[in-house]
Amino acid sequence: MISARDALRLLQDGNRRFVADRKRDARVGATRRNELTERQEPFAIVLGCSDSRVPAEIVFDQGLGDLFVIRVAGNIVAPSQIGSVEFAADRFNTRLVVVLGHSGCGAILATIEQLTRPVEKQSRNLHAIVDRVRPSVEPLLATDLPNDSAELVGNAVRANVRASVGHLRHGSEILEQLIERDGLLVVGAEYSLETGVVDFFEGLPSER
Ligand SMILES: [Zn+2]
């Protein structure tokens, strides 16, 4: 079992390789595939956005069997996301969970749009996503931030990641117990579309 701290280091190292354009490719080949037919031991769980520009395995330079990835627009947390995290943490003893948001997230933009210029015929299904992002965006609209749309979106992306981290930490008894007793760590991060850098900004253990 890889500890949360070591798993975090593996992701940070992988992202550095990705940013430097020095990706390794051995872990996606046939040898690796054949090693994994009977079992898997993913060292991290990533709840990320569906955005085509932010595939977790690529931005962290990981291969087959390394990451248990859940992707949904806006990296929101609904019961099926919590269930997926519970499943992986319990079944594979994975000890790190990363909520990965990103700059310029369309789900955040759609939520801001819906709150400032409501569209009447928004699909009920899309609405279900916007509704989960809304509590992170609404308080920001009451500040001076709306005058600066880049700042508003940046702050909303991070608020939404923090909210998802909170839902995972407190929305499940199984996860709460794993956090308390077994070293499960839930952190939040933001990927920059411009630089490729993943900034882990929420819930990092203090360096010792
Ligand atoms: Zn997105």
Task: Give the topology.
Layout: H1 4-19, H2 30-35, E1 44-48, H3 56-59, E2 67-71, H4 79-92, E3 96-102, H5 106-116, H6 124-141, H7 149-170, H8 173-182, E4 185-191, E5 198-202
Parallel strand pairs: 1-2, 1-3, 3-4
Antiparallel strand pairs: 4-5
Helix pairs in contact: 5-6, 6-7
The protein binds zinc ion (ZN).
Can you characterise this structure?
With 208 residues, the chain is of the alpha/beta class. The chain is 49% helix and 14% strand. It contains 8 helices and 5 strands, in the order H-H-E-H-E-H-E-H-H-H-H-E-E. The protein has helices at 4-19, 30-35, 56-59, 79-92, 106-116, 124-141, 149-170, 173-182, and strands at 44-48, 67-71, 96-102, 185-191, 198-202. Strands 2-1-3-4-5 form a 5-stranded mixed sheet. Helix 5 (106-116) crosses helix 6 and helix 6 (124-141) packs across helix 7. It is globular, with a radius of gyration of 17 Å. Bound molecules: zinc ion.
